[in-house]
Structures are given as structure tokens and as C-alpha cells.
Amino acid sequence: MTNRIIELQNELRKKTGEDKIVIGVPKNIKPRKFNKAEFIKAAKEVKSIFDEDNINNYTYAS
Predict the structure, then answer these.
(1) Are 35 and 41 in contact, with CB atoms under 8 Å apart?
(2) How many degrees, rounded to 5, is the angle at CA 2 between CA 14 and CA 5?
(3) CB within 8 A of 9, min separation 6: which ones?
(4) Could you name the domain of life of the organism this protein comes from (predicted)?
(5) Closest residue by Cα to residue 45 from 57, 58, 54
(6) 59 is in which domain, residue-wise?
(7) Which of 44, 50, 45 is nearest to 58 (CA)?
(8) In-domain check, residue 47
(9) Cα–Cα distance between 16 and 7 in angstroms, integer?
(10) What pLDDT is recorded for position 29?
């Protein structure tokens, strides 16, 4: 199957005139910064959902 995919990619390159297929992202794209405050806020919301006060609202598989 992998060989067939490579053959199809080569055929596509010949038809489009491309010598290579670029894999990855452009250099000017910067990764999104990790926002610690937002992460903590989301974690607290998740904790409140599974808090002991709400434990009766959920059923657990045994």
C-alpha cells in the first residue's frame, strides 16, 4: 500500500511539475504561547464538575 501511495505522489508531482512536496509549516508561523492562567481556570472548571458534591450525578462502571 505504501509503494502505491509513493507511486501516486510521484505521478502527481510529474503532472503538477513539482519536484518535491513540502511537509511542515512555514517558518514565519509562531507556535501559540501556553497561557497558564487559562489552563488553571479550565482545570478548576473540570475539577468542579467531578467534585465530591456532584459525585451522585455520575455513575461509574464497576
Answers:
(1) no
(2) 30
(3) 21
(4) Bacteria
(5) 54
(6) 32-62
(7) 50
(8) yes
(9) 14
(10) 64
Quote the CA–CA distance of 27 and 58 in Å, as a whole number: 47
Task: Look up cell 507556535; give the residue.
Answer: 31
Residue 23 lies in a domain: no
Distance CA 51, CA 40 (A): 16
What residue type is 9 in one-letter code? Q
Q: Based on the structure, what is the number of domains in the chain? A: 1
Q: Please report the sign of the dihedral spanned by the C-alpha atoms of residue 40, residue 41, residue 42, residue 46.
A: positive
Residue 62: pLDDT band (50, 70, 90) is very low
Q: Which three cell numbers stand for residue 11?
A: 505521478
Is 27 contained in some domain?
Answer: no
Is pLDDT at 59 greater than 60 in this prediction?
Answer: no
Residue 13 · residue 21 · CB < 8 Å: yes
